[in-house]
Design a protein that fits this description.
Length: 406
Amino acid sequence: MDERTGGREDIEAPLDVRLTAPELTPGIEPAGPLGLAVPPKGYEFSPINARRWRNFRANRRGYWSLWIFLVLFVISLFAEFIANDKPIFIHVDGKNYFPVFMTYPDTDFGDVFGTPADYLDPHLQKYLADRHAFTIWPPIPFSYNTIVSRPPSPFPSKPTWLLSKKDCEFAARNGYGKCGTLQYNWLGTDDVGRDVLARLIYGFRISVLFGLILTVISSIIGVAAGAVQGYFGGWTDLLFQRFIEIWTSVPELYLLLIISSVLVPGFFVLLGILLLFSWTRLVGLVRAEFLRGRNFEYIMAARALGVSNAVIMFRHLLPNAMVATLTFLPFIMSSSVMTLTALDFLGFGLPPGSASLGELLAQGKANVQAPWLGLTGFLSLAIMLSLLIFVGEAVRDAFDPRKTFA
């Protein structure tokens, strides 16, 4: 008697179907319940994020601006491998050296002083040439603080490719570097004798990193402050608003100049000073979003179910507020870069000698007879800010619910 048929033999017993894990064979997809191959699962956008991505890509100017900006930024991250007065790799006398990563004494290359090796020194270069050393140099053999040793004219000297026959005759007549033996400077040198292209690459990296770090930290603080104001309201909102009104009424530029003149200038010191004021940019926007959303029915239901305030704020209300907040981030980053550039231009920014776009603009202003300085600083800054603005416009289109593109 079959217990599964209730004792009736005329009823067919149901099939005993049990799903077991298939054996995984390399190169063969596992089969599904019906023997069909199961396609590999990858990450898929939600419908609303897919629509936003389509809207972002539909803005061709912003889409390609993002790619161009990312390529330039990634290249600048490897500035030491692009513009450096130290070789990337040296193989001599059976030994391998990596000067771009480590500092070697000149005793390793035939000298007796024990000081850090100067790889642009003719004596050291002759030592390597006599031993048939294999050397890999960066495309630009100058760092941001390297002084050009054989210029064709007094500093600032014009780009090498702009030198005319008259310039070469002047260099030969006055004891400067001859045109056939010059170290190539694509954008010339500044008034101290440093390669402009090398300083431009390092300055671009510092500006973008500074703007990115300042934007991220100030946005986190601003979003948290706005969320607390908008969600709790009442006296919390009132007191916080009065504090922000008083704080924003302080003359920011004068205070920045005073603090920068008292403290020793530096990357993180300047970052901390600017954070004192930049965090207020997003407070009003996030506060308005939380004031609007805290009385929604699903928020009230979550409160009734005993969900904590922190979970409601950052899991339910914050995603709605971030839609409007993200559209402002590229514009905030561009303004952060401009603030650093302005302080460097005035001489209250990064330490003297640092690679900076603002310092390059200041040199262009002080040396009107060398137009390549001002033009280089202006064009690089204009291109970078234009790319960020175009990306911001594309992000705004992506998060605009009223915009749909075919």
